Structure formats: structure tokens, C-alpha cells
């Protein structure tokens, strides 16, 4: 593998508090402080004038649908979408078919990753057997098989007793629990945020209280058991408040926000467009702004996409009958830059932090840094380039995105994984 | 102003002028209903498909009747006889109906927004005959038509809608029409079925029957929609009736000239006393008759007819 010399970039490395013009050097798949004169001569040079060089982006919440739902996405196509979006490490959710609740399924996923993936794809396992919320999954075996966390994402463990035992048991293995916070009884048949818009549209409402109750439950159980619970895709202002107060007390709770929840609100559902249907649903402007403030003050730890591919024919239905979820990997950086940097005056390094070091830290992943000796996972992007996102021409197997056809600013130019260019000039290498 | 709309999807999107146009057209058609020969030839040679994917008696019969009065050919499909039970998507069903050269489709569906969805797929006019808890525009039009017939202008009139508002498409369509027509609308019922969100539509919300009914000129009752409720929104039917059922005593609080309305089907003894439903203040059956005229107007206008050409020679 040739050495790489990334020249004239604006290097942003939040872990090192670095934001300066400079070069990056890569040898044998690792970042190094510099190259020898001989290496420099032979190195492949990438001129990155005008570009930002940052750690490869990290997304700890994606759905790659393999095994079992490969008509929507595969580990290959999902990893291509990740690379195109600047991501070098992603964590995939276990709600596949079958669900990833056994060491065998985890091994299947790891084999597919080794064979097909162009970025680092890390598996999670279920909290409960069959993701049914009735009994614990074999969490120890899952850990041994290589999961980085356990979660019943898509479902939420409803029994407080079972969740308490899961916390205690997972803590023994230092495994974080990632929870999709939703009280099922409060959201039966619900398809959008409950409020003025759902009242007008005659659609069944999903009250934010259903999220708040489980977030509070998780705070209580985390404090009681000492386990680390990560609250996924927080959508409610009230939940942000619960998490803020818990963190002030030192509770081991972390949380994420998605690009769509910080960018979009429920009034966009007026046309019953199923590309605005996801779970948790888009909420109000007050919620949206609270999420942004949560990211600003660190109440919310990171931005994750909840990349959830569904085919055109699955989404092309009556609103009530369409599945939840939208793509995210190829638009996450641009949307985050738009909302956080340009609209809400976050500093660019802060946003890079929310997309790299912070998510990696939640799960203790060796990613999100440009430190010498670290794996050479790098994202090169132009923060100012405006482009039109064509979801149908994207790298995901599906195209269910509310940003389809829209102009976005901020474009990934090159993605490097372990020192190897995997995406550049709009192509997977 | 010429009529330009091809679809009737909601009353929210109609202007007051458009509502008036439909009402005027319906009034003209209503005069034909009492002739010995009731058919008018305006839609001769056209085929209208009634796609009713949710149970319906009144609405479906009225649409049927309206189409036949206009001399159109009508085919009615219901949920159990359509291919949706074999797993066909709504898109495919609708595209097949269009490929069979239907000229118009009337749809009743349990999913809110499905008429809008069809209108984006099809080239033929789509008429909403009720979509989930969203809208039932022809019901709103016939209700306001009936009110106007009895009361004249609705500006400033006090209208109470009483019952299960949360799950009611009839309420939503009536609210949009009545607010545009200048009526003062109050929604009444248990707090679980009349959430405060409704005030955003320009109406008042009350849970006190006595003050709401005081001097009201219209009271419209709505059925409890057990089929859409997922959990107990109130303790029992008995308690509902005792708190919110319209009986003689409560009816005496109304304006002496008030009319009592109900879109049907009525549950006698639950939301309304049997006696009141049959009494002389009740306009429930007039609503049904007006339902034909209003639907004739809608079918006629959305197939390209103009309000001023409505009265054909006999």
C-alpha cells in the first residue's frame, strides 16, 4: 500500500483541539507524524486545498438490513453509502431477519462485512431474545461474538424489570445498552407527532410523553444499576431536559440526535409524504430547537442518522401503511453543516466532533481521531460546495430520503479507511 | 368565477366562493329530485367507480344515486370484493380502475390522506368519500347546505358539534366549512375525545354541555367511533350518555329554533334520545336527501361542468 500525503488541508481533529492548515501523513494504514524524505517522494499526494480533513465520520445508528431484508440494503451497499457520506465506522442495528440475537447471526454479519464492506461495520446484538421483550438474549455470547452494544432498536423493552436485569447483566461485560425510547401502550397505531398537525391531518398521534417516560425510566435504571444506557434518536424537548438534569448528577446516560430531527418538523407532513414518516416522528419547532441546544451544550452527545432504507414500493403507500424510516448516510454531513454551522452558528470543529469523536466515545470505539498511530480513517470534504442530492443515483440500494432532489451545501470528496481510498470523485474505489 | 377543480379532496383547501358554488349547484340539482323523471343527462356516457374500502351505507348509496341521477354508469367496489384483500396495493387497484377507462373515482378509505395520494397517481378526478379521521368533504358540504336551507346565512350562527371529535372526519370537514362561512363553532364532548389541539382550527372547545348548548342554533351529534378507538377514551357508554347524550332537558337549553343534525349512523339512546332524533327539530333525513343533491353537484363540477350550466331542459 503506497503511503499517502494529504496536502494543504484544513485539518480538524477535535480530540487534539486541532484546527489548522496542514498536512496528514499515512503509512501502512496508520496516521503518522510525518514521512521520511524517501517515503515522501514515493507517497501518493492528494492536494486538498480548500478542503477539510477530519477523522472519518462515525455513525453508531444504521440499518443495513442484512441478513434477511437485502432488497432494501446490504452490507455492501450500506457501506458504499457510508463511504460516500464520509463515514468510516458505522454501527448496525440488530433488527434484521432473523434478528441478531445469537452468536451465529453476529458471525454471519461479520463474515459479510469482511467480504463486502468498504468501511468498518460493527454489529450490535439484541437485548432480548427474538427482540420480543420477554427474556434476555444471550448477551455474554453476543459480546464474545463481537457486538459493540446491545439494543432492541425499533422496539423498546417495555418491561422495567427486564430492562433492569439487562442493565445489571450487560454491565458485567461493559456493554452499553442502546434504547429506542418509546412507551408502546401510548403509541399504539401512531404514525406522527401528536399535536396540531396530527389533529388537522386526522393521523394518529405519537405523544412525546411516550418518549419522555422511557427516557426517565432509563435515567432511573442507569442510576440504580450503574449501567450505561444510550438513548437513541431523541426527538422531544422534554426528554432533552431529563437527560440534561441526569448528566448534571453524573448518571451514565448518553444520547443522540438525528439530522432529520434537527432539520425538519411535523408540519412537513401536510402532503402525507411517506418520506417524512419515521419513528420517532418529526416533532415541533420547539422540540427541534431544543435538540439543537442539547447538541450545543453536550446534553446530546452526538449526531447519528438512523439510516433506514426501504424500497420505493414499500414507501409508496397510504401514509398509515408505509414503513418508518429514511436514509441518512449520504446527507448527514451536509444537513448537519446547514443546520448547526450555518443556521445555528456552531463552530465547524464542534460539528466534526459530534460526527466523529463523540459517537466513537459513547461505545468506546477506536475511531474519531487523527492522532499519530491511529488507524488512518479520514474524511476529506468541501464545506462550501453546493450539490444536488439525487437519492435514486445514490449508493444506498433504496432512495427514501426527504432530501431527494434538494440542493445541499457541504460535500464529501474522499473517504479513506485504514489508509486506503475507498471513495473519491463520486465513486467507490 | 369558473369552477376549475378536478378533485374534491378536502374542504380545508376550498375557498368560501367554491363552497358557495357547490351549494348553488346542489340547490339547482335538488329541484330535479322531485320531478317525475329524475334523471338529467349531464354525465351520460361517463363511468364512475365507487371504491369503498371501508364500510358505508348512506354515503355509498348517495354517491350511487347521485351518479345515476346524472345518467352516469356506476360501478361500486367494496373492500371485501376488491383485490386489496389479495394483497394488491392501492396504487395498483387505482391504476387498474383507470386502465378500465373509468372517468372518475370516488374513494372511501380508512387511511387518512389516501385520496390525495390517489390524486397524485391518477389522471382522472378523485372524490374523497371519507378518509380515516381526516375529512369527509361531501358530508361537510351537505351539512352546511342543510344548515343554510334552514337558517339562511351562517355568519355568526352558533353551531355546536357534540361527540367523538377526535376520530371524526365529519367534524373536521364541517369545521373547515363552517369557519369559512363565519359560523361560531364550539366542539363539545369528553376531554379525551375533544383535545385542545382543535382550537388551532379556529373553533372553541368546551366540556360543559350546558353552557355550550345555551342558545345554540345548530347541534350536530356525532357517533362514538368504537372502530377507531384503541383504548378506553371514556369509562362506559352509559357514562357517556349520562354526561353528553342529547335528551329533552338538554335540548331545551338550545335556541328555540335550533335544528338537530346527525350524519348517521345514529345510535339511538346513546348520543341522542330516540324521540329527539324523530322530532320536528331533527333534520337528519333532510341531510340524507340533500346528500344526493350535493354529491350530484360535486360529481358534475369535478367532471368539468360549470355552475351556470346546471339546469338542463327537461
Count the beta strands of chain B.
Answer: 9
The low-confidence parts of chain B are none
Rg of chain A over CA atoms, rounded to whole Å, is: 21 Å
What is the CATH superfamily classification of the largest domain in chain A? Answer: Metal-dependent hydrolases
CATH class of the largest domain in chain A: Alpha Beta
| CATH topology grouping of the largest domain in chain A | TIM Barrel
Number of domains of chain A: 2
Radius of gyration of chain B: 19 Å
Compile the SSE list and pairings.
The complex is a heterodimer of chains A (429) and B (314).
Chain A: E1 4-13, E2 18-27, E3 30-32, H1 37-42, E4 44-47, E5 52-55, E6 57-62, H2 75-84, E7 87-92, H3 103-116, E8 120-123, H4 139-145, E9 150-151, H5 160-172, E10 177-179, E11 192-193, H6 196-201, E12 205-206, H7 208-225, E13 229-231, H8 237-248, E14 253-257, H9 259-263, H10 285-297, E15 302-303, H11 312-315, H12 332-343, H13 348-355, H14 357-363, E16 378-388, E17 407-417, E18 420-424, E19 427-428
Helix pairs in contact in A: 3-4, 5-7, 7-8, 8-10
Chain B: H1 16-32, E1 47-52, H2 58-69, E2 73-78, H3 90-99, E3 104-109, H4 114-121, E4 126-131, H5 137-151, E5 158-162, H6 169-180, E6 184-188, E7 204-206, H7 209-213, E8 218-221, H8 237-244, H9 248-251, E9 259-261, H10 274-278, H11 284-302
Parallel strand pairs in B: 1-2, 1-3, 3-4, 5-6, 5-8, 6-7, 8-9
Helix pairs in contact in B: 1-11, 2-11, 5-6, 5-11
Structure description:
The complex is a heterodimer of chains A (429) and B (314). The radius of gyration of chain A is 21 Å and the shape is globular. Chain A has 429 residues and is of the alpha/beta class. Chain A has helices at residues 37-42, 75-84, 103-116, 139-145, 160-172, 196-201, 208-225, 237-248, 259-263, 285-297, 312-315, 332-343, 348-355, 357-363, and strands at 4-13, 18-27, 30-32, 44-47, 52-55, 57-62, 87-92, 120-123, 150-151, 177-179, 192-193, 205-206, 229-231, 253-257, 302-303, 378-388, 407-417, 420-424, 427-428. Chain B has 314 residues and is of the alpha/beta class. Chain B has two domains: 16-135 and 291-309, Aspartate/ornithine carbamoyltransferase (Rossmann fold), CATH 3.40.50.1370; 137-287, 3-Layer(aba) Sandwich (Rossmann fold), CATH 3.40.50. Classes of the chains: A alpha/beta (429), B alpha/beta (314).
Amino acid at each position: 500500500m503506497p503511503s499517502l500525503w494529504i496536502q494543504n488541508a484544513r485539518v480538524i481533529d477535535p480530540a487534539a483541539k486541532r484546527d489548522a492548515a496542514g498536512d496528514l501523513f499515512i503509512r501502512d494504514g496508520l496516521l503518522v507524524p510525518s514521512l521520511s524524505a524517501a517515503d515522501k517522494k514515493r507517497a501518493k499526494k492528494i492536494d486538498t486545498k480548500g478542503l477539510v480533513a477530519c477523522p472519518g465520520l462515525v455513525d453508531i445508528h444504521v440499518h443495513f438490513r442484512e441478513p434477511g431484508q437485502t432488497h432494501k440494503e446490504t452490507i455492501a451497499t450500506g457501506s458504499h453509502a457510508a463511504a460516500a457520506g464520509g463515514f468510516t465506522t458505522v454501527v448496525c442495528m440488530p433488527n434484521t431477519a432473523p434478528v441478531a440475537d445469537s452468536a451465529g447471526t453476529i458471525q454471519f454479519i461479520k463474515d459479510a462485512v469482511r467480504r463486502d464492506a468498504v468501511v468498518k461495520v460493527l454489529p450490535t446484538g439484541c437485548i432480548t431474545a427474538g427482540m420480543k421483550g420477554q427474556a434476555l438474549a444471550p448477551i455474554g455470547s453476543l459480546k464474545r461474538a463481537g457486538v459493540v452494544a446491545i439494543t432492541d432498536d425499533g422496539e423498546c423493552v417495555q418491561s422495567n424489570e427486564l430492562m433492569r436485569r439487562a442493565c445489571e447483566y450487560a454491565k458485567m461485560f461493559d456493554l452499553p445498552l442502546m434504547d429506542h425510547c418509546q412507551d408502546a401502550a401510548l403509541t399504539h397505531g401512531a404514525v406522527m407527532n401528536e399535536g396540531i398537525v396530527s389533529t388537522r391531518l386526522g393521523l394518529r398521534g405519537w405523544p412525546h410523553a411516550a418518549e419522555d417516560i422511557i427516557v426517565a425510566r432509563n435515567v432511573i435504571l442507569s442510576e440504580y444499576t450503574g449501567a450505561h444506557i444510550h438513548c437513541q434518536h431523541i426527538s422531544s424537548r422534554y426528554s432533552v431536559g431529563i437527560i440534561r438534569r441526569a448528566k448534571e448528577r453524573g448518571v451514565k446516560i448518553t444520547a443522540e440526535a438525528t439530522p432529520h430531527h434537527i432539520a425538519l418538523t411535523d408540519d412537513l407532513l401536510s402532503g402525507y409524504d411517506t418520506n417524512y414518516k419515521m419513528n420517532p416522528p418529526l416533532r415541533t419547532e420547539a422540540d427541534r430547537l431544543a435538540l439543537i441546544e442539547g447538541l450545543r451544550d453536550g446534553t446530546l452527545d452526538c449526531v447519528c442518522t438512523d439510516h433506514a432504507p426501504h424500497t420505493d414500493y414499500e414507501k409508496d403507500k397510504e401514509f398509515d401503511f408505509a414503513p418508518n424510516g429514511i436514509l441518512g448516510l449520504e446527507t448527514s454531513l451536509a444537513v448537519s453543516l446547514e443546520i448547526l454551522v450555518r443556521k445555528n452558528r456552531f463552530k465547524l470543529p464542534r460539528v466534526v466532533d459530534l460526527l466523529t469523536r463523540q459517537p466513537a466515545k459513547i461505545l468506546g470505539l477506536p475511531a474519531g481521531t487523527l492522532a499519530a498511530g491511529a488507524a488512518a480513517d479520514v474524511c476529506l470534504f468541501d464545506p462550501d460546495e453546493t450539490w444536488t442530492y439525487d437519492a435514486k443515483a445514490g449508493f444506498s440500494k433504496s432512495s427514501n430520503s426527504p432530501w431527494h432532489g434538494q440542493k445541499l451545501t457541504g460535500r464529501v470528496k474522499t473517504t479513506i479507511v485504514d489508509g486506503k481510498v475507498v471513495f473519491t470523485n463520486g465513486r467507490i474505489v | 368565477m369558473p369552477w376549475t377543480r378536478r378533485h374534491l379532496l378536502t374542504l380545508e383547501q376550498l375557498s368560501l366562493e367554491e363552497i358557495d358554488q357547490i351549494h348553488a349547484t346542489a340547490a339547482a340539482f335538488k329541484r330535479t329530485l322531485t320531478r317525475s323523471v329524475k334523471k338529467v343527462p349531464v354525465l351520460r356516457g361517463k363511468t364512475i367507480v365507487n371504491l369503498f374500502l371501508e364500510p358505508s351505507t348512506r354515503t355509498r348509496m348517495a354517491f350511487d344515486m347521485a351518479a345515476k341521477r346524472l345518467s352516469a354508469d356506476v360501478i361500486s367496489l367494496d373492500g371485501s370484493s376488491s383485490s386489496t384483500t389479495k394483497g394488491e396495493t392501492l396504487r395498483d387497484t387505482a391504476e387498474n380502475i383507470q386502465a378500465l377507462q373509468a372517468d372518475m373515482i370516488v374513494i372511501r378509505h380508512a387511511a387518512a390522506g389516501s385520496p390525495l395520494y390517489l390524486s397524485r397517481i391518477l389522471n382522472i378526478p378523485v372524490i374523497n368519500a371519507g378518509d380515516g379521521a381526516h375529512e369527509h368533504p361531501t358530508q361537510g358540504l351537505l351539512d352546511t347546505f342543510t344548515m343554510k336551507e334552514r337558517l339562511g346565512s351562517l355568519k355568526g350562527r352558533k353551531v355546536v358539534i357534540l361527540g367523538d371529535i377526535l376520530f371524526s372526519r365529519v367534524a373536521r370537514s364541517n369545521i373547515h366549512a363552517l369557519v369559512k362561512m363565519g359560523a361560531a363553532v364550539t366542539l363539545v364532548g369528553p376531554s379525551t375525545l375533544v383535545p385542545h389541539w382543535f382550537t388551532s382550527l379556529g373553533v372553541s372547545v368546551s366540556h360543559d354541555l350546558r353552557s355550550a348548548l345555551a342558545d345554540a342554533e345548530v347541534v350536530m351529534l356525532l357517533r362514538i367511533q368504537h372502530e377507531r378507538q384503541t383504548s378506553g377514551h371514556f369509562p362506559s357508554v352509559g357514562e357517556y350518555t349520562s354526561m353528553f347524550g342529547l335528551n329533552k332537558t338538554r335540548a331545551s337549553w338550545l335556541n328555540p329554533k335550533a335544528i338537530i343534525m346527525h350524519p348517521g349512523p345514529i345510535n339511538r339512546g346513546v348520543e341522542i334520545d330516540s324521540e329527539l332524533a324523530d322530532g320536528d327539530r331533527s333534520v337528519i333525513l333532510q341531510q340524507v336527501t340533500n346528500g344526493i343533491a350535493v354529491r350530484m353537484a360535486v360529481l358534475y363540477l369535478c367532471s368539468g361542468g360549470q355552475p351556470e350550466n346546471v339546469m338542463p331542459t327537461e
